[in-house]
Predict the 3D structure of the following.
Amino acid sequence: MSTGTGSGKTTSTWRNWAGNVTARPAREATPASVDELAAALRRAREDGLKAKPVGTGHSFTAAASTDGLLIRPDLLTGIRCIDRAAGTVTVEAGTPLKRLNVALAREGLSLTNMGDIMEQTVSGAISTGTHGTGRDSASIAAQIAGLELVIADGTVLTCSADENPDVFAAARTGLGALGVITAITFHVEPIFFLTAREEPMAFDKVTDDFDALVTENEHFEFYWFPHTGNCNTKRNNRSPGPAAPPGKVSAFVEDELLSNGLFQVVNSVGRAFPAAIPGIAKVSSKALSARTYTDIPYKVFTSPRRVRFMEMEYAVPRDALVATLRELKTMVDRSRLRISFPVEVRTAPADDITLSTASGRETAYIAVHMYRGTPYQAYFAAAERIFTAHEGRPHWGKVHTRDAEYFSKEYPRFGEFTALRDRLDPDRLFGNDYLRRVLGA
């Protein structure tokens, strides 16, 4: 396998985490600097190859797929600088979120919010709109103060609200369509404590009280278990501390046994015997008990996810969440579908990022999952019909069937993004089939 600017051929096959996307690139590069990356891009253009950076493959779409030059960011990692006066940290684009979180904690710093896994690279996470849940803060991209981007002609752009602001508005969630991100500057803050309160709650109570639960908590989310009227809720709020993490036994039972080990077994049984799923769901939805614990942010926001699955997630206007979710429940209850994975609901405030799923509107997210290897198409198609009827915007890195015509209606600034793409990458060096579908030719 080639390294450096990577002119050698390779026949290795790239696969994403879920295993539903594969690619066989003509060439791979693992640049160790911005200059090496720019050189690799120039060589790809000269040879008539497309070019795409990949992260850890946690996208369920083919956003990073290419038969041209595959760029691995493995050597573009680490913290470049910390500016405590400005409250910012600049990090290389290939840094995994888990390494960033640990490094920040060691420096007494933290991101304000994050998603529920931290395996992705920072550039991959922001480019597809990875988000957590929050009343006042949510997506990782919304916490960016600046970024560095190598565009198709090899030029290195530095972008912020003051420098190249049009590129900054778009590239924070750029789908890999505008260039290759090489560094990101995040707003950070002194590390703090969160107290997590997890407890079961009935579906009707969660939906009846949804607005109050969101308003009263800094971070609220819940999981509904299909074929039941049961949910599990999680409320995260800032706390003076001290740390009081879950006990070792509780952590093993809740996070490893029930959420990973036993959950794997339950899904395997459900895949083999679908008729058993509703009964299993009724039992498993009551297996998680109420608990409260306090810890630093990344230890509360994130959880291990070792059971592999397929996922679709849509963002709907927050005031449409309850109606949308109730329609989804009615559809499942009336269908012959058998769903062994819970449905996840989170929220986000409006932001100003051109193609963010929360762009310009208060947002709620509904994520549906199916165990890997289980037919998911019928469930996802039925769910997608409900989501799109409520002005839903699909997560850019998760399964969906929408195209540029749909997005041009759902994103008021869609034309702004495509015009910028025409300017920065007129020959579509960073194009692929997925971008052709979602952004147009």
